[in-house]
Specification:
mainly beta, Bacterial alpha-L-rhamnosidase N-terminal domain-containing protein, Jelly Rolls
Length: 158
């Protein structure tokens, strides 16, 4: 099983962020205070799964609609702090949904990196350009669940 408290990590996942709007840089448009990310995936082996997550700002993680308490932070000198969380209790066999809310911090980038590893240290889920994102404040509460129609959401930038 991967050590959840190792001092440095070599991330295999990609840092993702919402699409940047070149027009907003020219017009001085205010960036959103909050951004949503989501990904659905199929999983059949749900025991001994550790999630590693780091965000450039405050975050809330939901798995299948349930808010996951954050683990204590471990130091990462090479980039940022990250959380290591045993997420097996939140997962089910079959389709699952990871949903993340990012709260913008004016001093940090709005983005995240996430890896779900099994007991052998193999990647099960990771952040990449397939994740969907929106900055729309008027979102449907069902966005945190499997089956939500996110076709109008944009792909994250990786």
């Amino acid at each position: 099983m991967p050590d959840p408290f190792e001092l440095s990590r070599e991330w295999r996942a990609l840092w993702i962020q919402p699409p940047l709007r070149p027009k907003s840089l020219q017009t001085g448009e205010v960036l959103p205070e909050r951004c949503l990310f989501r990904e659905e995936f199929c999983l059949y082996q749900i025991d001994q799964l550790t999630l590693f997550i780091s965000a450039g700002c405050g975050y809330e993680l939901y798995i299948n609609g349930v808010l996951v308490p954050q683990a204590s932070k471990a130091s990462q000198f090479t980039w940022k702090n990250y959380d290591a969380i045993d997420v097996a209790p939140y997962l089910k066999s079959g389709q699952n949904c990871f949903a993340v809310v990012l709260q913008r911090d004016r001093h940090e980038p709005m983005g995240l990196v996430l890896e779900l590893l099994n007991a052998e240290g193999e990647l099960v889920l990771w952040t990449d350009g397939e994740w969907r994102t929106t900055a729309n404040e008027m979102f449907n509460q069902d966005w945190q669940f499997v089956g939500f129609n996110d076709r109008h959401w944009e792909r994250a930038i990786s």
